[in-house]
Structures are given as structure tokens and as C-alpha cells.
Design a protein that fits this description.
The protein is of the alpha+beta class and 189 residues long. Helices cover 17% and strands 37% of the residues. A hairpin with an 8-residue loop joins strand 7 and strand 8. The model has no long low-confidence stretch (mean pLDDT 84). Keywords: Transcription, Transcription antitermination, Transcription regulation, Transcription termination.
């Protein structure tokens, strides 16, 4: 396989409640069967949810799509996964099939790039680091999106991994901290 191989995300249907077990099984089978060059990432679509109970904030992980696992696979032939990768995933314990497959041995359709971007954002992950922002702590920025749109803030911390900055914004005469994505700020003020 070459470095320029195309990749696509596919949705695998599992028994509900077995998503993490399927993820572990598939990761193990990928290694033991030598498929690491065709099966890349396996994700359970989850997000962190905060709730307030009895005055306390409790955080839990919630499965967005019970019964489904996302698998990133190589698609070297006409946008389809290889027969070997299809066989390995399809025959993993707990997998009942692929979403977008028409049955009778047909291969499934991959997710569209827009769908993948939406899912990754929802899970707090970004597919690719697209913004290279040259800012420093203490710098004044202009906010161009969200509830503080049009206001100025001062950067307090920078997190390149999450593609976010923490800034303080003056609201009703008080400094209010807020987290902003790199795409939500403008450094040219």
C-alpha cells in the first residue's frame, strides 16, 4: 500500500451495548491479521454530557448512536474497501453488518466527508488540524462567531490540540472567561 491511499469512514452495525467490545475485537483482529494498512481507526460515537443533579454537576459519557461503530478503512479500488478488510470487519464477533449495504454480499457506501466532519465535531474531535494560528497569551483578539460575536477578548491560554483559546471578555463590567475555537477569532483588529 502507498502513503497516498484514500481513506473513508464506514458505519458498522453491532448488537446494542456491545459497541466497545466490537471496537476492542476489531482493533485486536486488525493487528493479528495484519490489516493495519487497511483498517485505521475504530471509534464509538460518544460525547461527554454534563447534567446538574442536586446542585452538583455530573459528567457522563453518552453513546450518540447505540448499536453503531465507525471504522476508517482504506479505499484503493473505486472508493470501495478491499475484500480482505470487508471480510475482517464483517466477521468480527458482535458485528451484524454494515450500514449502507444492500445485502447479498454487496459492499457498503462510505460516509460523506460532511457527515464525518459533523460526527467528529460532535464527539469533540477534529478530523484534521486545519488552522495554524499565530497568537500569544495576553494578545487582544476579535470574536467573530458565537454569543460574543463582535466583541474583543484577551487570550489567557492556548490549546493547539483542541484548536481552542481561553479568552476573557468584558460583559457588564466584569471579565468573563470563555473558550473559543481557532476559527471563531480574528487576530487582525
Amino acid at each position: 500500500m502507498t502513503d497516498s491511499i484514500e481513506k473513508a469512514w464506514f458505519v458498522v452495525h453491532t448488537y446494542s451495548g456491545y459497541e466497545h467490545k466490537v471496537q476492542a475485537n476489531l482493533e485486536s483482529r486488525t493487528q493479528t491479521m495484519g490489516m493495519a494498512d487497511q483498517i485505521f481507526r475504530i471509534l464509538v460515537p460518544e460525547q461527554e454530557v454534563s447534567t446538574v443533579q442536586d446542585g452538583e454537576v455530573k459528567t457522563s459519557i453518552e453513546n450518540d448512536f447505540p448499536g453503531y461503530v465507525l471504522v476508517e478503512m482504506a479505499t484503493p479500488q473505486d472508493g470501495n474497501m478491499t475484500d480482505e478488510a470487508w471480510y475482517v470487519v464483517r466477521n468480527t464477533p458482535g458485528v451484524t453488518g454494515f450500514l449502507g449495504s444492500h445485502g447479498a454480499g454487496s459492499k457498503p457506501n462510505s460516509l460523506l466527508p460532511e457527515e464525518v466532519d459533523l460526527l467528529m465535531k460532535r464527539m469533540g474531535m477534529t478530523g484534521e488540524k486545519v488552522v495554524d494560528l499565530d497568537v500569544e497569551v495576553g494578545q487582544t483578539i476579535k470574536i467573530v462567531a458565537g454569543p460574543f460575536n463582535g466583541m474583543e477578548g484577551i487570550i489567557r491560554s492556548i490549546d493547539p490540540e483542541k484548536q481552542e483559546v481561553e479568552a476573557t471578555v468584558e460583559v457588564f463590567g466584569r471579565e468573563t472567561p470563555t473558550e473559543l475555537g481557532f476559527n471563531d477569532i480574528d487576530t487582525n483588529i
